[in-house]
Amino acid sequence: MEKENIAVGLDIGTTKIVAMIGKKNEYGKLEILGVGKSKSLGVARGVVNNITQTIQSIQQAVLEAENNSGYKINDVVVGIAGQHIRSIQHTDYVIRTNPEEVISGKDIQLLIDQVNKLAMLPGEEIIHVLPQEFKIDGQTEIKEPIGMYGARLEASFHVVVGQASSIRNVGRCIQSSGIELSGLTLEPLASADAVLSQEEKEAGVALIDIGGGTTDLAIFKDGIIRHTAVVPFGGNVITDDIKEGCSIIEKQAELLKVKFGSAWPGENKDNEIVSIPGLRGRDPKEISLKNLSKIIHARVVEIIEQVFTEIKAYGHEDPRKKLIAGIVLTGGGSQLQHIKQLVEYITGMDTRIGYPNEHLAGNSGEEISSPLFATAVGLVMNSIENNSNSAYKIELKEVVAEAPKTAPQQPVFEPKEEVVAAIEQPLEVEKPAERETEKQIKRSFFDRYVDKIKDFLDNAE
Length: 461
Description:
The protein has 13 helices and 20 strands. By secondary structure, it is of the alpha+beta class. It starts with 6 loop residues before the first strand and ends with a helix.
């Protein structure tokens, strides 16, 4: 039976881990077949700090997604975030040996390989090398150089760098969960794929993804990624402030934030009060909603100001770099009441809430098209772009029968030969001239990067 092109994304967040299985339907839209969600234990500010707990959370999310969809997961595209992420702008060039031949994918690959050899700080590794614009023999602003003539090929690159140890820890967690790693994507880039339209990317837009542990930023202009950043604050610090400010437990603080929280204190009347049950027979606590909003407001202002500093660092105030489409807010934190108005007030830029329904099929549930799942949807789209056969159809009984195997404390699975073969098979086919430059570059880079991580993990054993 011929394998379907089933894609799987795994979003390892600070508050939740989401495994999402999807495929393209006949209209080219993304159809979600199954979603698994588990509480994220062992991840802080986007970085794994407890391997055992992270493995258990991943297994729980994967098993739920398999049971919901009736598919068995082989491999996943995973999102990378955390405060260790930084990005740099870099320009490089190659002199072509035979300028009489047209420029092909090989020339671009040569240039990418050159950038990949850049010297980084100790312990850092390049995650993405994203070409922005090309220059051929002095002719500027070329977006697609394949098929053109020229002796000197030059390009400006957006290079995303991260901590090697953090990336390898994620790889170890995934392999120990019994699945393979087929690709790595920076989380703000995945979220951007899911919630932004091409028109917005052309006009200039800043995507702000407010997660539990981090707030991610991706800036696009003229359809090209211009700037990425990760701010090490998210929804969790707001919850912590409420917990401290109101002297209540974390669970109650989170509920208060979600149900009654507002980023704009002026909205609440002085006499609006919510009563919280006391612990173990103690008297209930009465909390003023105005005070609650003041606590939330102070922290949200701090987060947005940090992100706005990054937007200004990109050069938004320069008329040529102006972001005409303004700001798009996504992630769980974007569901806070009145946050859109507060962001507009602080930045003076048009703002909307981004839902990942831009590319989803019409019959997708309301839950999946929530900003909470923006990164997961983007990772599935990335997996489809890689032409991954990441899952195969099985009888539901088979999944249930296998469930006890994933229960032990810290299982370590050997990667199955047929799974490795399934991943590696499509990667050997090289047809550079037929693909768009960006896709081809992404693939070839991911192949080498994922192989590097696989080698490292195998040697570690």
